[in-house]
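Dear support,

I submitted the protein below through the web form. The confirmation email said the job was done, but the results page showed an empty box. After a refresh the structure appeared. I'm attaching both so you can tell me whether what I see now is the final result or a partial one.
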Amino acid sequence: MAATTGTPTVRAQARWVRMSARKARLVLDLIRGRTVPEARTVLAFTPRAAAREIDRVLASAVANAESAHGLDGDELVVLEAYADEGPTLKRWRARARGRVNRIKKRTCHITVVVAAVDEPRRKRPQAAQAHATEESAAPSEAKPKATRSKKKQEVAA
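What the results page shows now:
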């Protein structure tokens, strides 16, 4: 768990989700460490089926933080996001010549932990970034490109 600081951490868990933990972990890696609005945007545009389940868990964690601790949902950060393996349902499928193949229907437990941001992130304004890139490009524009080397100019003449 998180270190015992003044900011409370809030947890939400979805248990016995019918998908493998490995598939859920691929999507959880995308949101870990992000702010809640960023994480929701990433999940909205992720085409995997796990994104829908994880979005539900994230929404639950934010609702828990807002109702139990009075925190603002837009100022939360995803501290931890992990998927543990759940029980595996074992089924079988009939095959040729009286044989059987086993089917493993895997489940997982998805957990998302959110906490309030200690310090607000400082982002450079977009105008300042554009101005900074123009200044760095200006000295390179001062030098004209060399058109041809001296040997090529002599051969051409």
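Response: this is the final, complete result; the empty box was a page-load delay. The domain at 9-120 is CATH 3.90.470.10 (Ribosomal Protein L22; Chain A).
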